[in-house]
C-alpha cells in the first residue's frame, strides 16, 4: 500500500492544510504509519497522541492512531489537549515521541500535525521523509496497543510548581481554543481575581479567531480589562503555544516585549546565560539582554528552529515575536503559552512594578507588523539572495541569520522568505514614523531592483 500527500500540506515545521482538500483521514493514517516506522527504526515503541478542539480533530486523531498501531507502536492517547500538553506528555511519560493533531492558529477549516521525537522537534527533512516512506509503502508492520492517560491535572500542577507570583486581577481569553480547560483549572489554583472568557472549546471559534498576534482578536479582552479595571489580560491561540498580552491601559504587549520582561528574572537566576530571540524581534530586546549581562542570540524564525537554537546554546529562555515562548532550565525546553502566562505573572511580581509600568519603561520605538506579500515559491529565495548580493556590494551592515536584517542609523529592516508559504516577509523598526518610512523606502527600492512590488500596508 502506498500514499501520496498533497505537497502543499508538507510544511517546514509541521503538516497542515484545509481538511477535505489538502488533508484528510487517509493522510493521517499514512502519517501514523510513517512516524511508527521512524520510531521503530530508532528503537522506540510508544507514541503519545493528542488533539485540539477543531471539528475535524477527533476523526483525524482516530485515523492517526490506527496508522500508528498498524505500524507496530503502542499509543498513549491524552485526548483533547493543547500542543504544550502533548509536549509535556512526551517529556514526562515513558514514550519515544508524540504527535498533536492541530491546525494551530489557522482558520477553522484547517488542521494538521505537529510532531516531536525523543524530546526534539520532528521537522524539515523528517517531514519529507514521511512522504518518501508513504510513496514507497515501505512501512513497518505490527499491532500496537492503545491506552488512555489524562494528563490535564498533572500538567496544570506542573504549571503551578513553586509558584511565587503574587496576586493580580487578570482577564483570560482562550478564544474557544484547546487552552480553555487548562486555563479554567489554572485560575482555580492561582491567587488573585480571575475572569475567563470564551473557555468553551468550540471548533467554529464563534467569538473571534484564536490568534493573539492579530490585534483585532484582542478586542474582547481589551473590553474585559477596561470594564472590570483589571491589572492586565492574557490571550492564547488555538492550540495554546502562542501567548498574547495587554496591559491595564489596553496596550498590546507583543511577544518580544513579553520576553524582555521575562529576561530579568531569568538572567538573575542564570547569570550570563544565552537568551534566544528570533530575527523578527525588536533591537530593544537584544539590547536589554546584553544590558543585563546575558548573551543575546539571534535565531531563525520558526518554533522548530528556535528549539534547535535553545538546545545548541543551552539557553534557559527564548522567544519569538509571534508569542511562542520557550522555557528550558527549570522546564522542558518547549514553547508553552500557559507556562509563559505563569512566568509573566511571576516576572511582574518580582519587578515590583505593574505590567503597565513595565510597558511604560520600554523604549519608544515604531515598528511594522509582519508585512507579507506573495512571491512564487520558485522565486522567493532568489529575491532575498539578490538583495543580499546588492547590499554586500554597497557595504551595508547586515545579519544573515534568516534572510537579511539590515541595521542603519534610522533603525533596522528585515527581508526573509517564508518557509511555509509563497510569501516574502518584511519587518522594520525605527525611533519615529519618519525614520520608519525611510527604512521601508529602502526595502521597496531593493525589491523593485528584483522586479518585486510590496503592496502598501
From TrEMBL:
The keyword Isomerase applies. Residues 10-126, 168-250, 254-362 form the Alpha-D-phosphohexomutase alpha/beta/alpha domain. Signal peptide: none annotated. Its cofactor is Mg(2+). The keyword Magnesium applies. InterPro entries: A-D-PHexomutase_a/b/a-I, A-D-PHexomutase_a/b/a-I/II/III, A-D-PHexomutase_a/b/a-II, A-D-PHexomutase_a/b/a-III, A-D-PHexomutase_C, A-D-PHexomutase_C_sf, A-D-PHexomutase_CS, Alpha-D-phosphohexomutase_SF. Gene3D superfamilies: Alpha-D-Glucose-1,6-Bisphosphate, subunit A, domain 3 (3.40.120.10), Alpha-D-phosphohexomutase, C-terminal domain (3.30.310.50). Residues 372-445 form the Alpha-D-phosphohexomutase C-terminal domain. It comes from the Bacteria. Keywords: Isomerase, Magnesium, Metal-binding, Phosphoprotein. Belongs to the phosphohexose mutase family. PANTHER family: PHOSPHOMANNOMUTASE, PHOSPHOMANNOMUTASE_PHOSPHOGLUCOMUTASE. This is Phosphomannomutase/phosphoglucomutase.
Amino acid at each position: 500500500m502506498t500514499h501520496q500527500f498533497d505537497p502543499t500540506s508538507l510544511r517546514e515545521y509541521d503538516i497542515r492544510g484545509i481538511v477535505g482538500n489538502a488533508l484528510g483521514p487517509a493522510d493521517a493514517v499514512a502519517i501514523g504509519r510513517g512516524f511508527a516506522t521512524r520510531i521503530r527504526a530508532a528503537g522506540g515503541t510508544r507514541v503519545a497522541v493528542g488533539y485540539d478542539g477543531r471539528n475535524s480533530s477527533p476523526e483525524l486523531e482516530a485515523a492517526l492512531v490506527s496508522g500508528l498501531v498498524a505500524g507496530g507502536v503502542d499509543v498513549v492517547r491524552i485526548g483533547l489537549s493543547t500542543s504544550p500538553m502533548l509536549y509535556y506528555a512526551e517529556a514526562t511519560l515513558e514514550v519515544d515521541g508524540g504527535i498533536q493533531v492541530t491546525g494551530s492558529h489557522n482558520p477553522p477549516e484547517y488542521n494538521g500535525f505537529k510532531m516531536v521525537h525523543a524530546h526534539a522537534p520532528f521537522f524539515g527533512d523528517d517531514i519529507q521523509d514521511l512522504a518518501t516512506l508513504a510513496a514507497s509503502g515501505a512501512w513497518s508492520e505490527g499491532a500496537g496497543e492503545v491506552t488512555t492517560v489524562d494528563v490535564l491535572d498533572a500538567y496544570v500542577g506542573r504549571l503551578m510548581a513553586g509558584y511565587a507570583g503574587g496576586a493580580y486581577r487578570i482577564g483570560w481569553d482562550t478564544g474557544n481554543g484547546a487552552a480553555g480547560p487548562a486555563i479554567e483549572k489554572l485560575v482555580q489554583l492561582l491567587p488573585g481575581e480571575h475572569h475567563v472568557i470564551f473557555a468553551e472549546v468550540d471548533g467554529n471559534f464563534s467569538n473571534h479567531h484564536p490568534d493573539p498576534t492579530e490585534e483585532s482578536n484582542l478586542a474582547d479582552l481589551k473590553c474585559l480589562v477596561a470594564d472590570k479595571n483589571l491589572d492586565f489580560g492574557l490571550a492564547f491561540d488555538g492550540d495554546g503555544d502562542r501567548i498574547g498580552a495587554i496591559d491595564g491601559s489596553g496596550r498590546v504587549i507583543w511577544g518580544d516585549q513579553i520576553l524582555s520582561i521575562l529576561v530579568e528574572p531569568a538572567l538573575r537566576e542564570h547569570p550570563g546565560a544565552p537568551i534566544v530571540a528570533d530575527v523578527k524581534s525588536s533591537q530593544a530586546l537584544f539590547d536589554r539582554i546584553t544590558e543585563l549581562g546575558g548573551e543575546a542570540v539571534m535565531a531563525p524564525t520558526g518554533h522548530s528552529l528556535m528549539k534547535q537554537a535553545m538546545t545548541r546554546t543551552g539557553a534557559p529562555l527564548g522567544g519569538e515575536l509571534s508569542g511562542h515562548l520557550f522555557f528550558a532550565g527549570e522546564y522542558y525546553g518547549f514553547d508553552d503559552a500557559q507556562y509563559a502566562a505563569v512566568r509573566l505573572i511571576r516576572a511582574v511580581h518580582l519587578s515590583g512594578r505593574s505590567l503597565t509600568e513595565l510597558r511604560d519603561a520600554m523604549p519608544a520605538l515604531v515598528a511594522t507588523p509582519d508585512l507579507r506579500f506573495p512571491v512564487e515559491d520558485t522565486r522567493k529565495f532568489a529575491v532575498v539572495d539578490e538583495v543580499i548580493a546588492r547590499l554586500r556590494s554597497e557595504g551595508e551592515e547586515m545579519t544573515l541569520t534568516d534572510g537579511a536584517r539590515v541595521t542603519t542609523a534610522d533603525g533596522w529592516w528585515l527581508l526573509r522568505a517564508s518557509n511555509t508559504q509563497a510569501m516574502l516577509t518584511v519587518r522594520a523598526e525605527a525611533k519615529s514614523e519618519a525614520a520608519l518610512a525611510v527604512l521601508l523606502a529602502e526595502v521597496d527600492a531593493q525589491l523593485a531592483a528584483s522586479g518585486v512590488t510590496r503592496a502598501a500596508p
